[in-house]
User: Fold these one by one.
Assistant:
Number 1:
Amino acid sequence: MIEVRDLSKGFDGVPVLHDVDLVIPDGEVTCIIGRSGSGKSVLMRHLVGLLQPDTGRVIVDGAPLDELTYSELRTVRRKFGVLFQGGALFDSMTARENVEFPLRTFTDLSKAEVRARADECLELVELPEAGAKKPAELSGGQQKRVALARAIAIEPQYILYDEPTSGLDPETSNTIDELIHRLGTTMGTTSVVVTHDMHSVLSVADRIAFVHDGTIPWTGSVDDLHTATDETLLAFVRANEYKIGVPSSTA
Amino acid sequence: MEIARPPDPPSAAARLREGVAPLWTIPAGLLQSFGSYCMLMARAFNLPRDLSPSLYGRNLAEQMVRIGIESMPIVAMATAFSGGVVVVQAIYQLENPLLPLTIVGTFTEQSIILELATLVTAFVLCGRVGAGIAAELGTMRVKEQIDALEAMGLNSVSYLVVPRVTAGVLMFPVLYVVAASVGMATAAFVAELSGALTVQTFWEGARLFFRPYGVFFGFVKSLVFGFVITSIACWTGYNAKGGAEGVGTATTRAAVLGCVFVLLADYVCAAVLL
């Protein structure tokens, strides 16, 4: 379980998050939604210790990240797989080498086993033919899918997705959503999805946290959206052309 | 209608403070940069317990090829021309009926072994290797690849900085040998070509005052320069901010700071070792 307690963060004197409290239960898909620039990605980076809060703390499986040594923090980080917004694939490696990288670095698998697992992950993201290509030879969407394959390669306990479906076509977005959902249901992976794509949220979310102006004014399940009264949340949902799960054009 | 009163102009004291404030920030900024550099190096060489020799070994081998082997042609070319220029200038300045022609070889050998082979190589590496490392790490920084390494639980500083700095320190002496050899050979060839003295006379002069300590001095400088160039480049690249502009700034800083600190290190080495 990941707990965020009273977390505040600012950059160059400009507050981005203030007094954020959030609990991410094990085995569930938690979607962090909100407008661009609301602080979603900053919050996600705190979960894996890539940013240190000005005040407050993040606790992963009972371990407060601010009290850990760098070595201990790296041990905690190995429980995570992170899909960055831009993919963050290593340019010097092929797609397969990117997926193999965490396996070669953190597991004792043989070369054949590493290759087999990498191929399996590329198959999962429907890019079995992309293994030999460098990131520069892949489209933005393909890069993101390879990055997802890399994130899930070592079967982490937690997977953080930063805008997993942005820039993808609807069909591929559905594939990614299905994969996120499947990882949660079959492997018990805890997922945190940062997104403003409500279609994706309604497909995968068990819980939703709405970030607005650096705070979380609303949390709840997809069903709770029906009874939500928070005006900023409803405005955000309506702006996505959804009214509690139903496109406004058909409502 | 009431007309809004314009704000009072800043007082002389305030204007002075504004003008002086940036001056105070210069030493503070330098101190901050030096601290940041030292912390990066400390973090890089405080190797994690789970250091994987295969992972770092492969990375080190790649960097040794890129920094050392691939730099050899440009280093050889630069020192060849430098050797030629030195011998032409030596003939121009020392051709005198009262001086033996062997002095041209002596002068050239001392210049190349003690100074030119290391300094020309260092300047070439500042541009080729320093700027390259800064651009590569800077791009990794702005494209979140360094964050990806950290998020995986890897010590990104050790993984990225240690192989590059180690490769620089190990390969610079090799490049020094290449630079000195090519420089001397070209100098001998140009001496013969000039018609002022023969190759035999040139080598005779070069051997006359040759001291192995000069070569030792060159090797020590090579190790220092290798560390200075690669560590500064890693520091500027690793701390790049923003997008393409940030990478450009990091690259420029790596080349400029590398050259400046090579000259500084050159002076310190000469003052301490000669």
Number 2:
Amino acid sequence: MTAPDDLGALMARVALHDRAAFERLYRATSAHLLGVALRILNSRERAEEVLQEAFVNAWNGARGYNPSVATPMTWLINIVRNKSIDTLRSGAGERRTTGALEDEALEVRADPHLEPQHLLDASLQRAHIDACMAELNAQQRQALALAYYKGLVHSEIAQLMGAPLGTAKAWVRRGLDKLKECLGARGVAG
Amino acid sequence: MNLLQPERLDRLAREYALGTLHGAARRRFERLLREAPLTMRVVAHWQQRLGVLASSVPAVQPRELVWQGLQQRLFAGPRRASVWQHLQGLLAPRVLGGVLAGVLMAAVVLRLQPQWLDLETRAEALPQSYVGLLVSDSGQATLLASSRRHGRTITVKVLQPIDVPPGQVARLWALPRDGAPFLVGEVPAKGSATLPLTDSAEKLFFTVARLGLTIEPAGGDPRAPAGPFFASGHCVKLW
């Protein structure tokens, strides 16, 4: 991935509707963003639709991007996640439901390293907050991971984990509190 | 209940950023985000924190057709795009100086107004849009408003000239099913106009049931209508 300051420079040019910069921004970020959408939507086709939609928004909304509020990658991830979540919940993708299972979706399920809790562990290690976050129990971690990577809501998490709704909410809340605390301790987004 | 109470705001912001806030509550919060930019800061803090969790998600290269489709949607129809690419490949690197390239670019950009191309490529079916036909108290069709589902402008056509006294303006308001009206923009007394939206039509009008027109003093409070609605109508999804 391009260094963050490069993305910032690209965003500034995209805000001026520089098409070449827009293509570079797309090339630098689209694979990572598709990965995020794919984890939520479990379908390459739907994820790619969301990705395209997100970049239409990015092009049209780049002028509203404020570098003091979010890094370009965070800004883009946020657009992609929101669109993925909206698509997931609107059931829009189901209009194309066929009998055939999608390869990509199967792959996602088959590879344990793509499971939410593995993604969470790997991300925490990268951010060097794994030791701090280890204070969370397995259920709290899993609840947070399901919400973030799969776009699930509290009731779905509760159902999946066989817990009462209030308990699932508390797990997620605890996970977020701890994340804030651990990042704050490292001086990141505190 | 005050949404702007710091603790409550932080709870909503993090649930929104994480995605666990859903349904009508999510839409209500999105409206709050638009209306109270300060709340965006709180959300952004959470998005930045949660962004850390995305770092390990494996990248998946999108198919090239995603980029091609994106270019078509934003910049050009397929035929013209290839002509443009052809010209660019032929001329830009070697022959053309900056000035000529600039002139060419300007000409092409002018020719490739996306709205023209949308009309061309989608002429057969009406595009997915939000549409409102506002009728006056006396039953006369007064204003037609339409906005493409994912567009960021709304086009209004005044069907019956509006009597706007000097120093006053006609304002178009959106009335969500479960919230306070919000200002869409000022409409002309007659003719047509295209008004910018603060967000995509989908975001803004998803929960809007009706549209209404008021006459009020110019420069009035954009947060609430100052006069009664003299014309109104349903806001419908055209798809």
Number 3:
Amino acid sequence: MDKQEDLIRLENLSVKFGKQMVLDNVSLGIKAGEVVGLIGPNGCGKTTLLNAISGFAPLETGTISFAGRDIMNLAPDQRAVLGIGRSFQHAGVFKELSVSDNIIIGAEKAEKFPWFWMFSTRYREKMDKIVNNTLADVGLSVHKKSLAGILSGGQIRLLELARLQLFKGKLLLIDEPTAGVAPALRQQLAKTIKKLNQEYGFTIIIVEHDLKFLFDLVDRAVVLVDGRKYIEGRPEEIQKDARLKEIYFGTSE
Amino acid sequence: MGYLYTQLARFSEAAIMSMGAHLTIAVSGIFFMGIPVTFSLAAYAMVISQNFGLPLIAALGVALGAVLVASLIFVLAYLKLSADSFTVFTLASILAFDAALKSWDGLTGGVLGIAGITRPAFVSTLVRLAWFQFGLAILAFAVEQIILKTRLGRAMQAMKENKYLVESLGVSSRRVGASAIIISSFVAAIAGIVAIWRIQFLDPSFGGIMLLIEVVTIAIIAAKPKVKWLAVATLIIILLPEALRFLNLPSTIVGHLRNLIYAFILLIMIKNISEKLMPQKRFI
């Protein structure tokens, strides 16, 4: 892989919690526009890897560069400003804020409005338009004024992804998008994630246990086992691996 | 009428002071307990400056300058310490400040305090002062209402729920928390200044643990980030003990009974709203 073209480059990344090595010497390069899936058994370090990239997990060793820049000394909010967006495995929305406020809090940061704008009619009209368009896009317009806490698991995921559409960045880290989502909504989630990549141009790293859902989305998959990179490749190559079959299906047949 | 104006003034002082506690505790989820320190510090700084011959405006400047320094120390502690340690630090600051006031008696009057504090001419009577304080309380409510509708207010509310998620959107939780602490310190300072104009006597008990109990109780009862909740909570906490005055109980019992009422209200409220109030475990 040509290191010059990588949007994000992880070199020999290790993360330790207490005495336990959660990530062990992981190196990975991801090119702009790629959709990369992270898979592996529970506790293998997938979410920790996303936390390390977004700045929430301190590194034991290793380096991370993003768009050719060393981001090791940047706080999570500074990494987000630089263009690394994030969705979380749990609580990806603010349940005590209204659905529209959940969109506004993402939009006003992304749009970089001067602070005094918030008192102007022009600002309110612009925000209204952004909120209406974004919610219509994911079919949540009817819940605009409701507290986000009343939404179902799937609707919360859609709201979270809708907010990510407004994120002005280059890389999205999406953690288990189908967790707690009814099968009926998974197709819509997949469509929204594809749209984030194809229409909005985001490079995406996605952690997911539902392999069918994941393999339909990604260009490449990376398998982590016990904190180490076990294998990486195109979905059709990965699926042939005997150990992966054993991990996920209990058989290598 | 004097009694009613005194109650109006007490309500206003508590409302101004609690607006800060409301912003930090109920809105942002930061358990900042240093409010009695800035409340008392501003009053002492102003009164001492006036005793040194400074005019009112300059004395107010000194008071706000002292509060700025104190609030920056609290911000530094907020940035460097864990949430629990920060709360303990701010609690300890009340005791440390109390000890300093009692020890430095050449300047502060020690436990005997400073008597004979005069009111400025524009609030020379209790009636004028009460209405002035009420105006400030309304202004404090309006300021909080505006803050809650702004980017900062939304970030404060969001931070209480999930700090990591806020940071992932590019918002600095450190800046938001620091803003809440600074605003809180300054409104408490304003409350301290106007309260001393009413009481006209200053001693170390002016901003102690009892004041903290009152302020935190109001912030806890007004757990929602709504100004009307803050107003109702302030009204309950100020007027409830007053009802006990008409029961012909010995004054020693009234004091304890008031604390019991506070404790009882706290227990009920915490039982009912603990999930909203208490910092939740975060999973990322």
Number 4:
Amino acid sequence: MQDPRVPPGTRDRFEALYLACYPAVHRYALRRTDSVDDIADVIAETFLTAWRRLDDVPEGDATVLWLYGTARRVLANHRRGELRRTALASRLRDELITGQEAAPADPRADVVRAAFATLATADREVLALACWEELTGPQIATVLGCSSTAVRLRLHRARKRLARLLDMTDEAPVMAALRGENR
Amino acid sequence: MSKIDRMVSAIDPAAGRAAPAVSPGVYDLLEEIVATEPQGGRSRLRRRLLAGAAAAGIAAAALIVVPLVTGAESSAYAVTRQADGSITVKLNELRDPELLERDLAVLGVKAKVSYTPPGKGCSRNFTSADPGIPREELTSKDPKVKAAARQKMDSSPSAQAFDLELGGVVRIFPDHIEQGQTAVMEFSENSDQTTGPEKPRVLWEFSFQLANGPVGECVLTDKPGWNDIGDPEKNPEAFPPPGS
């Protein structure tokens, strides 16, 4: 039955963007939180926001960037302890629990992981958007709501800080291991 | 790609995992989301209503720039029960409030309706079902205090029981009105309904408040701030662009 509160076409548009962008938003959440509940909350809250503000969601390639930006704010609220545990997505939660897998133990990657974890949130985010979501400078700027110049500067600083952190750790074996994996 | 970037790529927590499948749980979530209030309506508009309410010192009031009198319909109002159990009231003319009260009563909603001329308000004796929220909390500079007050307002019994939708339709949710409660509604309309950015003003105002127990008769009182809509910076919604 057609919900009288929903203008025609709204549901179709939302469904299309949800199905197209679900994997990206899922991975975005997965990369930034450890708990299954948090992943489900971030996914649910992000898409709920998109549903409520569908007119604000841009079309095309910009859609997923808008969702990343929204997910980022949801996570920021989460870190401040303000995200309510949503009642949505209970089945998804169960699926996530059964599908959970531990990252393969790799002492060399652990060194990088530990250094990365000590970076400030803003440094981590800009590096993650560049290296994990594989976004370009202008795309990162859209997600973060700043200029491309600011992104270049932030990326440069974040890389420098991470490099400095790794210099203080056992860098040689890490580098060797990574060299072997170069594509 | 720099060395550092390659190192970060190598610790991607999602690397090596299969792409998230569109599983039954994913479809469930989609259905759950589209079953909630859609865009535009409730959250944003309601916040606007309630923000106006704080200033007016009543449960909810709105500055909506939609003329009530369309001239296209002959009946003063239309009351419709919707499939989801809610009741919509579309007002075309501010007349016959008692008739509207009676029609709502037939649908199980006890209501007191008053139509007041511009610059006048209704003063009634009744006990509000809503918690008192100090005005200084709503206008607090501390975002946390302000957010908490807004939250309290958004979840108040009155706010749960109605919604004001585009086109001047009032939607009432009978599920959120308890036995013994009365919906006290007040409508006021400016005599000049022409719109335009050159003469911003309040076109009409609506308030909705749930009362516990008996509700007194309407006593007309002056409302000096009626046409005071602030300045465009603080209240941009009262200054629509031409043609809107």
